[in-house]
Amino acid sequence: MRDILKTTASRRAVLGAGLAGASMLAMPSILRAQDKSLKVGVYGGYFKESFDKNIFPEFTKTTGIAVESIAEPTGEAWLVQLEQAARAGQAPADVSMMSQVAMLKGQSTELWAPLDMAKIKNASGLIENFVNKYPDGRVAGIGAVSWYITLVTNTDVFKEAPTSWTALWDPANADKLGLLALVSNSFLLEVTAKTHFGGTDALDTEEGILKVFDKLAEVKPNVRLWYRDEAQFEQALKSGEIPMGQYYHDVTGLAAGEGHPVRSTFPKEGGILDSGCWALSRASEKTEEAHVFIDYLSQPAVQATLSRKVGTSPTVKRELLDLTAEEFAAVSSDIAPIVPRYDLYQTKSDFLNQKWTEMIAG
Amino acid sequence: MRREPPQRLADYAPLAFPAGMLIVFFVIPFATMIAVSFFEREQGGFYQPAFVWDNYARFISLFFGKVLGFSLFLAIAVAIACVVIGIPFTYLLSRTKRKLQVLWLVALLSILSLSEVMIGFAWSTLFSRTAGITNLFTALGLMAEPQALTPSFGAVMTAMTYQALPYTVLVLYPALVRLDPTLTEAARTLGASPVRAFFTVVVPALRNTILATLIMVFIFALGSYLLPQLLGRPQHWTLSVLITDQAIYQSNMPFAAAMAVFLVLVSLALVGLAVYAGRQKEAV
Fold this sequence. Notes:
The structure holds two protein chains of two kinds.
Chain A: H1 2-32, E1 36-43, H2 46-54, H3 56-63, E2 65-72, H4 77-87, E3 95-99, H5 100-108, E4 131-133, E5 139-154, E6 177-180, H6 183-186, H7 188-196, H8 206-217, E7 223-227, H9 230-239, E8 244-248, H10 249-257, E9 262-265, E10 272-280, H11 287-297, H12 300-309, H13 325-331, H14 342-347, H15 349-361
Parallel strand pairs in A: 1-2, 1-3, 6-7, 6-8
Antiparallel strand pairs in A: 3-10, 4-5, 5-8, 5-9, 5-10
Helix pairs in contact in A: 7-8
Chain B: H1 16-36, E1 40-41, E2 47-48, H2 54-59, H3 62-94, H4 98-112, H5 116-126, H6 133-139, H7 153-178, H8 181-189, H9 194-205, H10 207-222, H11 226-231, H12 239-249, H13 253-283
Antiparallel strand pairs in B: 1-2
Helix pairs in contact in B: 3-7, 3-10, 4-7, 7-10, 8-9, 10-13, 12-13
């Protein structure tokens, strides 16, 4: 019986793979119908939906370049896939939205084709730290969108909004928190350093990092869920099952807009400002189209549309945007943000990961 | 029909297809994994071919030892729970009417069509404070107020047992149906109570089936990745969770491969031990 079950499973897997393969083979013929096309990787789910609906059709109308959007997984899984494919001379997507840590890791293997800034005129309006550069000054990526991770609460359980990240340490919140499960996407080390050690400079040395870890370990009794899966926490936050935690400002705003009892607060120490870059795989043959695409997306008007429709924070300078004060406040804050120490996740990634896992699971 | 041993080389031809599949889909990937486990990790990058023991050295620590120990303990606990629930259930099932049996088996099979994600989310809702079963207990006056039953070890055990039980029943069912009813009848005639007859006749007669079931559920549970994560606290995360972290989120394939190889070796050793112990007992 065991063997029979096994064969069915594998046969189903083979069938599935066959179907997927067949549909992939069918794709290029559809694409060939268009003169110019570009494969763009964006985070799957809500992000991809918003881009497909609000951004890509306009882009195709303006430039005549068809966009095939590819749902990329979060985390660094996509980076690994892009790298493996590039080694074989393939590009599953020409341009991809990549996190900062992934940008740095891709740099180490020259995965990103250097961008020609002369062809991206609109990049002049970008906030300086959203231009991702190789150590020798070549441009590896251009800021696509940025987003905040803030302190979120269920309004039924917490009548008063918390004002500081110190709420995470408050013994009154025992077993009430949901926090991100990975050191490289929760950025809680930076939060702890800023809240209790005066700034992220405290993470400069390994000694300093260990001190920050000790302080952070004190929140453990308050944490009910260390989540990898965003949907899991979002659901629990809406229902009040887990009434406090860290989460994405944009999605929380959307949920509140739909009438769910949730709120996102910028703590007085600042929200965590994370961002994604557009980067071009070195295996891509669509260099021209990619530059047109990145230039288009860097326009202040398009950035404003992203803020209004997707809820992300713009990567171009505030004064160039036609966002009202209210619209801007909805996606950002005047409180100085906590900027993650991306450098650490490259130079000390194994050390941080090991200590982090030991801290939460130990 | 008489079975003859293969005479010529061509007689082995039908074996070529399964052997080929096994090589392409099992041997090669597994060999690749072993090879990668010796590759050198480039921090902040990927990996490069080399022959180093670093990945195994990193694994051998108290921390990973504890995680491995917990994973094995959890898998064994789930296997025992499944068998303890599965044997009496299947025994009673095999004694019911044919129609009822089919109904039960279809219901059990339908559990297999549920993905692990759905099982995980369903149980996390059932065990929640806001919408879970404790609300029912409160309404019935059994509890003062609703409380959350997840995340906890109990929640992980429940969901994993739920997931593995259909396999257990499906493996036990044929053996129990084929079991000669006259055996128990003889025991009853000789004055044994039904419970005593069950434990002294049915269970020993099924010893090999039970061992096979235990091993199957053990291996099935050892690879569990999602349920411990959805329903447990970090101390209930299995080694599979950490392997995924390394492979997907840290892009540290060599270390992930080393952990996976280690897990396979340990589970093979345990299975070997169980089979060996079973044989020894049989020989006596």
